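FAQ: What does the model actually see?

It sees only this:
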Amino acid sequence: MLGFIGGLFSIAFLVFLVLAIISSQKKDGKAKKRWIIAATLFFISGILSQGNSAEVKTAVSEKAEVAEAAPVTKVEKTTTDTNQKVDKENTKVADSNLTTKTIKVDEETVKKNQKKEQQKLVLNFEKKFYSIEDSGKSVIDDYTQTMESLGKGNTDIYTAYSATVEAQKMADSLASQYYNLDVPDQLPKNVKDYLSESKMGMFYSYSSKSDGLDIMLDFLDEQKPSLVQEIKEKTTQSDQETLSAVMNMLQAKEAIGLDISKK
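And it is asked to produce this:
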């Protein structure tokens, strides 16, 4: 705006300057007045020119500041966006790590609980395993004591025969119970194999014992000394199979992480 007004005063200055020169030549008495007006216009034009320069300089300065500020704002925005993106990525990584850790902890918990359940199954099997043997203990012990008494001459042969018959019946019953003893399906294969071999070992043990008792009945009937050796062989076989069965039971407990010193 000041530039436009300044331009008008400059033109007016030139006009009055020409008029002053003309008046000076004609000497019409107007020269002095026109020289004063021209000088005044020149002075005002100069002031307006300076104001216009300041205004232009200010405008240029403001534009420069805006130009300088704009990239900074853009950089700040870019930096902020980058930081936010990094924060989001870090949050995703943290969440991912937390999820992985949680899954890992859950898997470990599941495995521990599963192992505890399997240990309970083995302990329950062991309990049934020994309870079957305990159920026939009194009959077998009575037979053993009766035969010892017979050997000492303190028991008659009829009593010994009756005790042998009862012992044989019990041996057959125990063999059948061991054969039908179920092995839990939820156990690892190696543990199931140990338990299966254990129960079958007791089945064969009492089957051999039953065979030996059957030979004992023949001996009591016929009094043949040759039968004594067969009875000893069956008894030895039965004891070996019992020992093997117990060893398999211990191996099953050890494989599932149980203390084998505890029955």
